[in-house]
Amino acid sequence: MKRLILLLAAVMLSVSASSQVISKAIPKFRIGVKVGVNYQSNDFVGEQIAIYDIKPGTGFLAGVQADLKWNRFGIHPELLYSYIAMEAEIPNANGDPDVKVSKIDLPILFEYELFGFLNLQAGPTFSLYTGTGGDCSVRESMQGALRTEKWNFKRPPVGIAAGADARIWKFNVGVRYYKYFGKGEFTGIASGESSMHGIQASLGFYF
Q1: Average model confidence (pLDDT) for the chain?
Q2: Is residue 7 part of a domain?
Q3: Could you give the number of structural domains in the chain?
Q4: 103 with 85: CB under 8 angstroms?
Q5: Which of 43, 54, 160, 184 is 20 to 30 Å from 169 by CA-CA measure?
């Protein structure tokens, strides 16, 4: 009888320990939405850099966010639609030469929680261009032919993002710096390469 009781106790302890291990291994999951603003700089390098000037621009972002948390550690993926407009100064241009970019962003950030509400985040971010705007008629010289061109990106950007995210109840407020690796190719109105980096500020809500 004593052996049976000891065996049952050992089984119960084993089951309890196993359940605790499983519960710790399964992350806490939640999903939500977010909106925000972008401020982006475009460092343009081309053959005619002296006469083409692309200024930093602003835009918006909107999409979904998710959290997978193991105690203080977690993974924070997002799927966002972003739009940014940058003013372009191009001599002898008629029309709208400004650079307008729309893209799908997929940041996958690793995070660490501090003070119970502040999350430090860093990780890769991937993008896919869905459209580029800005087209105008350009005359290379006073007697040159008039041609119509538009901006176009040839290479999808891959970069890194880092920032902080504060969470109170179901709301979260975040600030993030991002930079794309390498240089994306610009063709059209002006051919060359560009290196993009910027800052995002956002407000989110978890269901």
Answers
A1: 81
A2: no
A3: 1
A4: no
A5: 160
Tokens of 148: 């119509």
Task: Give the CA angle between residues 122, 86, 180 to the nearest 5°.
Answer: 25
CATH of residue 129: 2.40.160.20
What pTM was computed for the model?
0.78
DSSP H or E segment with residue 135: strand 118-139
Q: For residue 124, count CB atoms less than 10 angstroms from its CB and return exposed for 0-12, middle for 13-18, buried for 19 or more.
A: middle
Whether residue 16 is contained in a domain is answered as no
The per-residue b/e assignment along 24-37, b for 16 or more CB within 10 angstroms, e otherwise, is eeeeeeeebebebe
Structure tokens at 135: 């087209």
Range of the domain at 91: 27-206
Distance CA 207, CA 195 (A): 36
Residue 80 included in any domain: yes
- Predicted pLDDT of residue 193: 75
